[in-house]
């Protein structure tokens, strides 16, 4: 150790309140590294903590310039500022990255003070420093947590907002245009519900990677939450640049995904807003991209839409429709209802007889006219209105079944569509028992249709409810089969009686070999599990013949009849007494 070779004598007569022996010990035992250099900035002394931190022994550095410690990462301006401060104020303090003897670099907190002689000339520099990598790592980790989405490692909403605000300031200053794309995955909920959150999470990670790879490093990709992502292109020539990138994203996201043993498929719906045309603050741009995204969803998914001011009118219309729906449901009465059930025959393939009728809800609103169930049922589900509406459907279906019996039409079963929320509502069993009793019906007179994805949600609860319904003697069908990701192995455990092949497979059964193969396999496997197979959406004789050859048990579709109002069904059935089951 230098200086001195030996600890100085224990003298106290040099004017210092502490002896130099005490100072020496403080210097030597300090946890902070201490380095002393002379007026020419040659190292003359270092303590033990210095050796521990840097890996250099005293002998290796004495006589050399402290710059041997430098990492080489700091710019010359940094050192200029440091020397400036030392010459003006005799002191400097700050964070600096240095290199250890083993080559590793580390951040340290460094304080330097200048010691001057009587004439004011620099006699020494005294530097002390600590390694701050640990606290720096902790700070970095905190920043990472606060600003990054843990699942995908993309920036989160917080980071996105501040980066967008920054990008907009730059755009304003430099007169540039910017595009904001809001991306929502199309059937993600289905995948998450049927295959579980683990699978959903891994899919999101893969989507995040594809998004990141589809754009430039200077573009911002962030996850806002759930299956919602955002991409900001801070430098575009015009809308066509954004459209090109959106197309690229559509192609990348729509490719197949392998997650574990599952082959999955999802597509993006993309809404785009542009700065400055569609807004100049982050909030407005995001709201407008959101409207455009809804538009993309309505336009059939897997596409992108640019914001147009009239989209706000569409959003307003949605709200108005929702209010109308709420009002229509709250004022349902036997005499006056905007709702009705239309019935569509189900035909036994072998005998060509009508064995069932599916009840399909219709809504005729004074302002909006006929509204498709594809539009108002999801709305009722989102708002919880499906509960009272679904209850009404069950009562009405039972009432109509009673009226069929009064017309002498006996062996035709009525199939009722049930939403996920209804299925899990504790009142369902009591409600059905009450409606059946009220209209003096047997459980065998009705059938419940639940979609494949509903059947896959919360398997334990679902199984227990279906068991109770089945024990009552109610027939159960899985609707839209083939659109979810359920396995027949899982369905085997459910007490179901029928599988309804989704219309989308039937449509292209003659032209698409995949659809034909899916139908063939589903019918064969369904039969092996003792299930009856129903095909939806049969429109042509060729489809009917194809399905008949495969042994499909029951057919439903426009080939036989569209869904009809009750009175027409009675006429239809009475006109063909031979076809009643
Ligand atoms: P879903 O249960 O799969 O009903 C079959 C849909 O296919 C019906 O559409 C029906 O009109 C239509 N369809 C039947 N045959 C053909 C055909 O040959 N060609 C074509 N192109 N379409 C055909 P709809 O009535 O518009 O109902 C759509 C969906 O709304 C239903 O699909 C069901 O999921 C839901 N829905 C309808 N009524 C109710 C209800 O009372 N409660 C619940 N929860 N959902 C309902
Ligand atoms: Mg159905
Ligand atoms: Mg269906």
Write the layout of secondary structure elements.
Elements: H1 20-29, E1 33-38, E2 43-46, H2 48-54, H3 58-61, H4 76-89, E3 91-99, E4 105-116, E5 122-131, H5 133-147, H6 157-174, E6 177-185, H7 188-195, H8 197-214, E7 220-225, E8 228-236, H9 239-254, E9 257-259, E10 262-264, E11 268-275, H10 282-298, E12 303-306, H11 310-330, E13 339-348, E14 354-365, E15 369-371, H12 373-383, H13 386-406, E16 413-418, H14 420-423, H15 428-438, E17 446-451, H16 452-456, H17 459-472, E18 475-481, H18 488-491, E19 498-501, H19 503-507, H20 513-528, E20 532-535, H21 541-549, E21 554-555, H22 566-575
The chain binds ligand C2E and magnesium ion (2 copies).
Task: Note down, in words, how this protein is organized.
The protein has 22 helices and 21 strands. With about 575 residues, the chain is α/β, with parallel strands linked by helices. It folds into 3 domains: about 30-135, PAS domain (Beta-Lactamase, 2-Layer Sandwich); about 150-310, Alpha-Beta Plaits (2-Layer Sandwich); about 330-580, Alpha-Beta Barrel (TIM Barrel). The strands form 4 sheets. It has an 8-stranded mixed β-barrel, surrounded by 5 helices. Helix 7 runs antiparallel to helix 8, helix 10 (about 280-300) crosses helix 11 (about 310-330) and helix 13 packs parallel to helix 15 (about 430-440). The longest helix is centred in the middle third of the chain and has 21 residues, at about 310-330. The termini are far apart. About 30% of the residues are buried. The model is unreliable at about 1-15 (pLDDT under 50). One magnesium ion binds near residues 358 and 417.
């Amino acid at each position: 150790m230098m200086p001195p070779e030996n600890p100085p004598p224990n003298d106290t007569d040099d004017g210092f309140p502490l002896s130099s022996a005490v100072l020496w010990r403080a210097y030597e035992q300090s946890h902070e590294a201490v380095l002393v250099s002379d007026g020419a900035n040659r190292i003359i002394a270092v303590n033990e903590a210095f050796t521990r931190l840097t890996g250099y022994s005293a002998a290796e550095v004495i006589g050399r310039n402290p710059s041997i410690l430098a990492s080489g990462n700091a710019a010359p301006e940094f050192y200029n500022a440091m020397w400036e401060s030392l010459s003006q104020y005799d002191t400097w303090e700050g964070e600096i990255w240095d290199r250890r003897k083993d080559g590793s670099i580390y951040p340290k907190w460094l304080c330097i003070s200048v010691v001057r002689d009587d004439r004011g000339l620099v006699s020494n520099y005294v530097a002390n420093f600590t390694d701050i990598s640990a606290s720096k790592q902790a700070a970095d980790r905190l920043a990472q947590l606060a600003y990054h989405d843990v699942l995908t490692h993309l920036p989160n909403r917080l980071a996105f907002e501040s980066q967008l605000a920054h990008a907009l300031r730059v755009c304003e200053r430099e007169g540039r245009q910017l595009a904001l794309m809001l991306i929502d995955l199309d059937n993600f909920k289905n995948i998450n519900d049927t295959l579980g959150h683990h699978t959903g999470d891994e899919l999101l990670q893969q989507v995040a990677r594809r998004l990141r790879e589809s754009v430039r490093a200077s573009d911002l990709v962030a996850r806002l939450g759930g299956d919602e992502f955002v991409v900001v292109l801070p430098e575009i020539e015009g809308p066509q640049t954004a459209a090109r990138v959106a197309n690229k994203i559509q192609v990348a996201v729509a490719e197949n995904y392998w997650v574990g043993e599952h082959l999955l498929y999802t597509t993006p719906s993309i809404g785009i807003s542009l700065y400055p045309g569609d807004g100049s603050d982050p909030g407005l741009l995001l709201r407008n991209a959101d409207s455009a995204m809804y538009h993309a969803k309505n336009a059939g998914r897997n596409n992108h839409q640019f914001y147009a001011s009239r989209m706000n009118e569409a959003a307003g219309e949605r709200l108005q429709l929702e209010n109308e729906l709420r009002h229509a449901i709250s004022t349902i009465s036997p005499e006056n209802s905007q709702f009705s059930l239309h019935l569509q025959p189900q035909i036994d393939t072998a005998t060509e007889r009508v064995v069932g009728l599916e009840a399909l809800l219709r809504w005729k609103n004074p302002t909006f006219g006929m509204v498709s169930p594809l539009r108002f049922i999801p709305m009722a589900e989102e708002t919880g209105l499906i509960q009272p509406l679904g209850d009404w459907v069950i009562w009405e279906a039972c009432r109509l079944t009673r009226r069929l019996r009064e017309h002498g039409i006996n062996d035709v079963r009525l199939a009722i569509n049930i939403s996920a929320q209804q299925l899990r509502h504790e009142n369902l069993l009591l409600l059905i028992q009450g409606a059946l009793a009220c209209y003096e019906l047997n459980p065998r007179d009705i059938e419940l249709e639940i979609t494949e994805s509903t059947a896959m949600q919360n398997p334990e609860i679902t199984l227990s409810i279906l068991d109770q319904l089945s024990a009552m003697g109610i027939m159960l069908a899985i609707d839209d089969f083939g659109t979810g990701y359920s396995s027949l192995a899982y369905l085997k455990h459910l007490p179901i009686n029928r599988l309804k092949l989704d219309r989308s497979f039937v449509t292209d059964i003659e032209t698409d070999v995949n659809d034909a193969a899916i139908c063939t396999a589903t019918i064969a496997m369904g039969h092996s599990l003792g299930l009856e197979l129903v095909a939806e959406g049969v429109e042509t004789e060729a489809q009917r013949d194809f399905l008949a050859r495969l042994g499909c048990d029951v057919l439903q579709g426009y080939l036989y009849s569209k869904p009809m109002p009750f009175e027409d069904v009675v006429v239809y059935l009475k006109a063909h007494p031979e076809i009643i089951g």
